[in-house]
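Quick one, T. Sequence first:
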Amino acid sequence: MLKHKRYLLIPALLLAGALVSAQTATVTDRETRGHQLMRGTYNVGTPQATEAECRAGIAPDVLARSATSLYKCRTENVYLGTYSAAAPVVCPAAPAASTSSTSQACPAGTTGGPIVTTVTDTYTMGPPDACLVTSVRTSTTEGVCAPVVVTGSAVYISPAGNDSATGTQAAPKLNLTAAMIASASPGTAFLMQCNASHTMAGKVVLRNLSARDANRITIGTYGDCVSGPPVLNYPANTVSAFEFGQNFGDGTPHEGYTIQGLRLVRAPSTNEGWGIYFKNDISKVTLQGMSFAGWTTNINAQGGHRTREILVQSNDLRGFAGGHGVLGRFTDSEFLDNISEPGATGFTHAFYLSEGSGNVLRRNRIIKTGVCTGGGITMHSGYTTGQGESSPKPIAGVTVEGNTFEYSEPPAASCYAVSLSPYESAPAPGGFSEVIVRNNKIINASTPINVVAAPGALIDGNVVINTTDFGQTAVSYRNYAEDPADLSGPGTVSNNTVCRPSGSSGITAPAGSTVSNNVVVTGTAATQGVCAIAI
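Structure tokens:
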């Protein structure tokens, strides 16, 4: 995410309409007196200098000043007059903030995106003796275009193709099937035609035991991707669009897949379904530049199974129906630059990760234009026993950094932004170690930051903004008193900024923690500077 700021000073008179001075008996003007902008009138008297002398600077601009009189050199002429001060001038209101966005698809030969550029102009008025408008422009660019990597052969798939064809771009195939993927040579890329609607018969199982990280099986795109992605349409009863692993008893490890630039759509259904479904022992998978519609949960990793080293980047994870944007047990995985939304209830979330260690969530944007009633980034520990483990374990290594949460106000009580906690009824010990929650911006969450049973946690540099003050705790960091066997101990809460209309700091931490340099901003200042809503 790149941000650029541009500062522009605009005279307020140009915004409100300039005052015109005329050579009449009474001239309305503005003048700074005692460092306060006043409005008053000049009662015209006898000229004291010629206009030429005034313009040449021979005559001083202000010849004399007293409490009620002012001799002033005016551009029209030089008058001797009396200035009667009136009430302080009220500067015109600053213009309302404006936001515009542009979206651009990735060019042909690449996948991912779209590249969304959002430009926000915010304005402030002041100082009071100048009535100048300050404009701050923030430009945010999100999305990644990446080349389609083909290390082996390519198979082209088009709605106008034929399964008996050779699969070249000139003679594409019609369907993408599990059998094609299972028998493909390492490095093969299956390229779906962009700006086209593909009818899918059902789920596609991905299980190629020859693929490796350096020679991946790729499902990507080709053609006019600027006009639109390939849209893969699945029937209503489809359990998953792409499913890694054959069955629950299949423990054979496999790795090396990339899925890029597709839109996965399921017809309306009352049955549960997942866009991407990981199960068994799968690693080194990239999901990039994708979008979803009609799935209960967009990306699901089966609890207790070994889903490792997954990169989920620049996807649109919104539009899930009753579930989550991302759900399940991931280990050593990264979730970067995605856009999502909170769940519909306190039990559904944009990201809901359980048990797995070593995960990083960075630069994601979680948006809710209506009332937020669900979770943002949520992690629970200590419930299920993973493959190869003898019992549930605490989570070791969590980084939640540089994410933004943009919720409308006021939120429901079940609206969370960042929440890390053990399962309440899970076997002990639960909890977290090596936790970093840093540089996130959270707007209007009823529970902005909740970290439980995480000794040594670093909660640093976050900005928590609430435009409605209902007594919420901005940073709730505590041990889990209900289960003394869970991990416990102090940590660090530092350099956080809490912006709220009124109230106290709203920061708690376990005994012995380092709590320093946290700032609470209230009143008008809670809407300006670092507390401004604009991202």
